[in-house]
Amino acid sequence: MQQPFLSFALASMLVVPAFAPTFAASLDAYVGQQPEALLAAQPEFAKAYRSAVGELDLPEWTQRLAAGKRAERVDIDGTGYVLTSACSSRGCLDEHLYVLFDPQSGRASGLFFLPPASDNPDDTRTAFSRWYGMPADKATAKAIGAFLLERAIGDARTLATPAKN
User: Which pTM does this prediction carry?
Assistant: First the structure.
């Protein structure tokens, strides 16, 4: 009588590992895609992004995400996310949008970043940057916020530094 239970238990152990790489594979499905392609070809991403930005008053280009960086996998406090960013077709020196997507939860959060003008150290534009879709969990929101702000500031510095020949 114990054999059916043992068989079921062994079968369960064999099935669980088959599901384990599903999350990693789902991240890989997004990595390397341009932001515009993610909106067009990944309905889960598009739904999460549109829900996160909701009724925010953002520039028109944020609806298309036409110019940006390919999506990459990032880990924040042990959780894997897909990070992509976009900017106006005029360039990324004025406005930059960061989108952090968690395929496991189907949620997106991010930062609409206004970098300070590189020629004006007193520029306060950054104060008008906006967060969106941040998780309710304060520790997670803090970790995501710190990561995105560090990335945004680093990107702004890189873009503001003239290329050396």
Answer: 0.78
